[in-house]
Amino acid sequence: MRRCLPLLLLLGAAPAPDTRWFVILAGNGDLIGHAEQSVTVTPAGRETLARQEVWLRQDSPTIRKIVETSVTLHDIAGRLVSIDSESRSGSGEPARLALRITPAGAELVRTSLGHVERRTIALPPGIRFDAGTGLLPGWNPAVTPRLEFDNFTLDAMGIEHVVIEPLPGAPGQALRRRYDGGELRAVARLTLDPAGGVAALVQPMFGTAITIRPATREAALATPTPYRPLGNAMVKAPFRIPTSAMQGHIRYRFTFQGGIAFDPPTTPEQQVTRTADGATLDICTDCGAGLPSDPATLAAALKPNAWLQSEDRRIRAEVASIARMKLSDTRKMELLATRAAGAITIVDFTGHHSALEALRSRRGDCTESAALLAAYGRAAGIPTRVANGLVYSRAAYHGVSNVFMPHSWVIAYVDGHWRSFDSAMGLFDATHIALTLGDGDARAIAAASQLAGLLAWQDMAEVRTSPE
User: Fold this and answer.
1) Among candidate residues 448, 432, 333, 422, the one with its CA nearest the CA of residue 379
2) For residue 44, what are the contacts with CB-CB under 8 A and spacing of at least 6?
3) Single pTM value for the model
4) In 3-state terms, what secondary structure has residue 266?
5) Distance in angstroms (rounded) separating the CA atoms of residues 66 and 70
6) CB 161 within 8 A of CB 153
């Protein structure tokens, strides 16, 4: 299911030697965590220490604390030198990410579950690292109604395009959108103080609207109320969906919360029609136009990356026997889906692990299962993407039944066309609603979580074809 990724605290650096405290609130006002941020000025530059805690309840009475710490160094001229971050869920092994700025670009080292991943990303001129907080104090929306720039985002381990615009009808507030290519990956509402600094941040996540705002130390360190992300992220279906409808054609109608619109992706099974205030999704075996199948797209869907290590010998060893079989690619993906499902033996809803990490640890949920299947497909020479969104569950899950819940699955190019495969649930049906497409990356998974919170469900109906 959807991962409980650490929140991003992008409210700008505190003036030295001050320490700033923040409360992290759920949509109902409950305190679910806190954050602190302090700056130390040295002869070499500036060091910013940020730490945040979020308390979650997965399965009562289990409570899990997510702790994220980062140390950011700038030189005397204010240029970014390095970022070292660590994320820990409960008593588990922490995941670490180290960033160093070099003449070659951004050098990243990610360590998780004993696996070390290294990559270097070229940085274009003018790239920012602060999500635009440094631009806001001098921003006059009457003169420049739209701030637009490229930003390196650590949690995405890559470059995003950021757009900041005033929020209509809300003086002193702005919307910040982050894009991967043309796809919306995150949205946040910013409240600006008189000096143009970010006084508060609100973003959809965990099935609610998370607010981060300044507070006293005493208020920030008050006893939190653990939040239930999985239960609250589930959307109650208006009726129990029969099996015949799940295996047929379902039409969904949505509007957008707060007027923040986005385009859900078209897939082999999902057709999207935008309306004036929302979107209609038709989902069936052949409803969608599929993904592009030009050589460049297919080649990109075969490449290994930091999340889908399809070139690794351990991944290749897992798929070698199936890849050699004289079978259709469709049948190979079905066999690989069974193998990926069997590789996850310990259910774990926290963090997000790559395909190789999941294979090594045998831990994960549907997101790891999808990443593993996508890596298996690429290792077998089959182009794959990972879809993230919602799926229906009639049976009780975490104490709630008849709901749509966060989910991930795989879209593969097999036998001349794209088709969806679900290794976690075993069967793809018309209740799979895709909100983002990615390559097993945490960014696309977290984006699906946010975008689901922007949907206002209006209608859902089975579409039946009348006999001639």
Assistant:
1) 333
2) 75, 76
3) 0.86
4) coil
5) 14
6) no
Q: Is the peptide bond before 145 cis (omega within 30 degrees of 0)?
A: no
pLDDT for 1: 38
- Residues 15-49, buried b or exposed e (16+ Cβ, 10 A)? eeeeebbbbbbbbeeebbbbbbbbbeeeeebbbbe
Q: For 74-109, how does the pLDDT look when each residue is reduced to its tens digit (9 = 90+)?
A: 999 999 999 999 988 876 778 899 999 999 999 999
Lowest mean pLDDT of 92-96, 126-130, 384-388, name the range: 92-96
Sign of CA dihedral 427, 433, 436, 437: positive
Q: What are phi and psi of 246, to 5 degrees?
A: -60, -35
Distance (Å, rounded) from C-alpha 247 to C-alpha 190? 43
* CB of 64 closer than 8 Å to CB of 16: no
Each domain of the chain, given as residue ranges in start order, spans: 19-229, 235-462
Decide: residue 165, CB within 10 A, 0-12 exposed, 13-18 middle, 19+ buried: middle
Percent of the chain whose pLDDT exceeds 70: 93
Separation between Cα atoms, residue 344 and residue 181, nearest integer Å: 32
- Look at residue 300 and give its three-state secondary structure: helix
Encoded tokens for 286 = 């052949």
3-state helix, strand, coil in the chain (%, to 5): 20, 40, 40
Kindly report the CA angle at 54 between 172 and 229, in degrees rounded to 5? 90
User: Which pLDDT band holds residue 5 (cuts at 50, 70, 90)?
Assistant: very low
Q: How many helices (H) and strands (E) does the chain have?
A: 9, 25
Q: Which CATH number fits domain 235-462: 3.10.620.30, 3.30.70.260, 3.40.50.970, 1.10.520.10?
A: 3.10.620.30
61 Cβ partners below 8 Å, 6+ apart? none
CA distance 436 to 454: 13
- C-alpha–C-alpha distance, residues 300 and 310, integer Å: 13
Q: Count how many Cα atoms sit within 13 Å of the Cα of residue 121 in the half-sphere of its side chain.
A: 20
Integer Cα distance of 184 and 167 in angstroms: 17
For every residue of 31-72, DSSP letters joined together read EEEEEEEEEEEETTEEEEEEEEEEEEESSTT-EEEEEEEEEE
How far apart CA 90 and CA 111 sit, in angstroms, is: 17
